[in-house]
Design brief:
Layout: H1 21-39, E1 42-43, E2 49-51, H2 52-59, H3 64-69, E3 71-74, E4 81-84, H4 89-98, E5 107-116, E6 128-137, H5 142-159, E7 165-170, H6 174-190, H7 197-202, H8 219-223, H9 234-249, E8 254-256, E9 268-275, E10 284-290, H10 294-297, E11 305-311, H11 312-322, E12 333-336, H12 343-355, E13 360-362, H13 373-382, E14 387-390, H14 393-397, E15 400-405, E16 414-417, H15 421-430
Parallel strand pairs: 1-5, 7-8, 12-13, 12-14
Antiparallel strand pairs: 2-4, 3-4, 5-6, 6-11, 7-9, 9-10, 10-11, 14-15, 15-16
Helix pairs in contact: 1-5, 5-9
Amino acid sequence: MADQNKAIRAVKGMNDILPPESARWEWFEDKVRALMHRYGYANIRTPIVEPTPLFVRGLGEVTDIVEKEMYSFVDSMNGDPLTLRPENTAGVVRAVAEHSLLYDGGKRVYYMGPMFRHERPQRGRYRQFHQIGAEALGFAGPDVDAELILMCRSLWRDIGLTDVRLELNSLGQPQERRAHREALVAYFEKHRDALDADAQRRLHTNPLRILDTKNPAMQELVEGAPKLLEYLGEESLAHFDAVRRVLEANGVEYRINPRLVRGMDYYNLTVFEWVTDRLGSQGTVCGGGRYDYLIEQIGGKPAPAVGWALGVERVLELLKELGVEPDVPGPAAYAVVPSSEALAPAMTTVEALRAAGVSVLMHAAGRDGPGSMKSQFKRADASGARYALIFGESELAQGLVAIKPLREGGGEQRTRPLADVARWAAELLTA
C-alpha cells in the first residue's frame, strides 16, 4: 500500500515545461513558423515511434546514437522492433519516400517536436529534448545548402540571438571519403597506442568519427590527421566553393573546420554547425548538411536532400544566458467581477470580446465569492493585462463596463456599453 501512495514523478531527463516558461517556447515556435512561411517551407509531422531499422540503416550502426542512446523496444503485439525517434531527418525521409512526395518535384518542409536519447542529463542535454528542423528534398544544387544556412542566420536575427558562429566543412562524396578513410586508418594505426578505447573500437568501422572525439588527450593527434578537404575532387570542391560564395555575398562569416563530421553517417558534401562558447560542452546550437544518399538508403527512389536541426532547449538557454527576454504579451484585459450578481453579464461581455479576438482573463471566484476588489486588481496587474474591465454595481446599473488602463499609454479610464461590444472591442486590440 505504501508504494500506491508514493508520489509519481517525471522520468529523469524528461522535463515538464510549465507556465510562464511555456510562453517562451510558444514565442519561439511562432517566430519559427513565420520564418518558414517566408522561405516557403511547409509543415510536416511524423510519428514519434518509428521502426528501429530506420535509424540503424539511416544513421549508421556504429554511431553513438544507435550504439548507446536509442530507446528501443519490441512491440508486444507483433514483435516488431520499434524506437522512440532520436532525431527526425530519417523519419522525414521515410515519410517522403513512403508517400512519393517527390513525384512532382522537390519539397521544402519543416518540423518541430520531441526526440529521445538515453543520455546522462545535463544542461542543454536531456533524454527528451525538442528539435526544430528544416529539410529541402529533391534539390541538388549548392544554392539550397546556402539558403538553409541563411535561413538560420535570419532566425537568429528574428529572436535576437548573438554570440553564435558558423563552422563549415565538406565531406565530399563516398569515393572521396573512402580514399580519406584509408589514409585515416593508416595514420591512426601508426599512433594506435595513443587512441582511447572508443577510438580503437572505431578504427576499422568508422574512423571518421574519431575526428569528432571530445577526449582532450587526443586533440593534438586528431589535429595532425589527414584532412578530408585534401581528398575532394573537382565537383565536390566546386559545390563547396559555390556555397561559400553565396554566404560571403550575403555577409555571413564562417570558419572552415576540417574536423566537423556531424554525428550521423548519412551526410555528404556540405556540413555545418552553429556553435557558441556560452553553453560549455553543449555548444552546438544547430547543425546540418547534405544527405544525398539517405532516401535511397532507406528504400526510396534516389534523390538529393539537405537540412538542419536545432535544439530548442539550447537556443532558449542561450537566450537566457545572453539576457534576451522574449516579448511575450499578457492578455489584453482582466475581468474584475466585484459580486456574484455581476457574474452573468460579465461573462456574456467577456465571451463577446473573445469572439471579437480580444484575449481576456476572467477572474475566478473562490468558495466564498469573488474576493475583494483590491485582491482582484493585484491579480489583474500581475497577469500582465493592459486593461481591467470593471463590472461594478453602478456601471452595470447603467448597462456599462468600466475600462481601467493598467499600463502606460492606455489612456484615461472610460466606460463602454455592454450592449455594443463589437463596436468598441477593437480599442483593446489596438492600444
